[in-house]
Specification:
- The chain contains five helices and two strands, in the order αααββαα.
- The protein has about 120 residues and is mainly α.
- It has a two-stranded antiparallel ribbon.
- Helix 1 packs across helix 3 and helix 2 packs across helix 3.
- The chain is elongated, with a radius of gyration of 18 Å.
Length: about 120
Amino acid sequence: MNIVISNRDDRPIYEQIMSQIKRLIISGEIKEGELLPSMRALAKDLRVSVITTKRAYEELEKDGFIVTVTGKGSFAAEQNTEAIREEKLKEIENKIYSIWEEAKLCGITADELKEVLSIICEEE
């Protein structure tokens, strides 16, 4: 499992770990039922505190991305891709709303914002 911790990222380390594991599960790189590294092993690999990896795993379990079985470890949970998609869509809508509020403060019109989005999409 390839997880990269960045000092430039404003988010706490446990959130960086969580988001990357979520991405790996959603993308299918970590398969349903696959055993994740132990908290200690992951902490050692990432050179972070076990407390940090424990918090990341606890949050992942709370969010339904992993299941922990005492004495056996943590496993990728079965995913409801539609629910995940809906959650991500809500996050994106919130970010777009925030961008729109900032754009209005700068005098940027909806058409200008749409043009920017169109250009970004064409680059892909």
